[in-house]
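TA notes. Do not distribute before section.
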Amino acid sequence: MGHDTYNCNKGCPVEATLELIGGKWKGIILYHLLEKTYRFGELKKTMPGITQRMLTKQLRELESDGIINRKVYAEVPPKVEYSLTEIGESLRSVVMMMRDWGRKHFGM
């Protein structure tokens, strides 16, 4: 299957995928959530360069797109946990391939 199989002017699958998981932070968030369920503060600690506002925005977008679950516990203070949905879990091979490629090409 060649690159010209899909007409990227009319909804390229690569473009659609990058729209969902592209950008600086979404792939990193997904990488961490592949490991386990995280609370907001725990997830923020794994990404020291992200602001609270940006993490909130990225999590909301991933939730809206059906990639992650947001579970709120009726506690004081409220406890919120984030995990992958079935769709999010289906991205495991994509995220792991990006990890492996980065290790190979950047020696990480």
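Switch to the second chain here.
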Amino acid sequence: MKFHALERSLLTIRHLRPVVATVSRHDPSLAKQLRTAASSIALNLSEANGRTGRDRTHLFRIALGSAKESHTAVSLAVAWGYLQEDDAKLVLEHLDALAAMTWRLAGR
């Protein structure tokens, strides 16, 4: 059975690849943080899916925090002028949808 939140996180990472490459040319530190945060979403969703109880909820909350961190990193790249708003729009929409999914999984 597919875990839709995990599938969405992997799709989001595919859309983030060119964004990270562009940001990396301007701000390698921000690009690394974005890459780490986006990977954290998928990794914590996957781990939470195999857990139960409060541990599971905690990992979903970490995934939610990483989704919000990723969103902010992309927004910062736009604010700094590394990305055009149009180039960030789809990725930000994916991150918003992913945050909504993880918010529900985290029991918020």
